[in-house]
Amino acid sequence: MAGYAKSEAQDWARETLRGQWTTLMTPFTESDELDEDGLRRNIRHIRSLGTRGAGCTWGMGEFWSLTREERTRVYDVVADEAGGEWPIGAHVTHTSARETQYLAEHAESAGFDLLIVAAPYFVTKTERQVIDYVGAVADGTSLAIMFYNSPQFGIVMSAQGLQEICAIPNVVGVKEASFNQQLSIETHLLLGRESIISTPDEWVLFKGKELGFEQQVMFANTSDWRFDTPESNHYVRFIDKAMTGDLDEAYYDDHIRPIKQVSDRWWKRTVQKQNGSLPVPMVKHWGELMGMAGGSVRAPLMELSDDEKDELAGDIESARGLKTGAARGNA
Question: pTM higher than 0.90, yes or no?
Fold first, then answer.
């Protein structure tokens, strides 16, 4: 169970949500079953990079494709691997308010530290609906909540709407992943002193230095396990330093920018191919190239073609200067 009272959620978050947090993918076996052993190996590998915490069953975790039993089983496996020593967050959004409450209760009982809540996609068309929905979820849990602002859920909240969400007592902040840079900046400037605002991309760090704001956590992305190995964890090191105000641009240029340019190019290409969906196929295959368990994506997502996989592997090898997959084997 989380080691804080509901009234202490913001203080807990200020202390704990720091540095690099990861987003876990959900690996599947060849028969399209949850790959529990692979998930455990992935978590152990990510922890070895120095990553501060993790979130599961988010967009990159294909939550929308999971049955209730699969989704809660992922919670159980992640909580077991964390062992109460590694902070973890569970994404619990669902179109059904009752199902969201069920998932929140399961995550809390399993030992998760916080919840991630987004708009209840499909019928949610107004900001008031989202605010009321998050308030209802917050009323039913003792855990801290980070709101996830993303177009993947059918509505993007304004900075003013996010301000109302952050006024809910145990909502501690926002993962501002709208892909709208101006909205991210506005949200940081409006809410960043009272709430934890995190845009999960490095551009915001350089813009923050220019405009006079900082974020304390990279909450959360896949860049740690796509870019780093235990022997060469430049991304995690850079983020940890940057989150304390030490933005080392030369280090970023030398060790991260080349691989980030590959990532940005393939991210955009895969999103365009899927007409706006998150690039889960690209990210999952990238993980496999790094020796992690991934497996296929679930329909209706489309796999990368064999030619695309070969091209991606070549681009990664060129940027990193070493053979992908040779970093750590399959352990």
Answer: yes
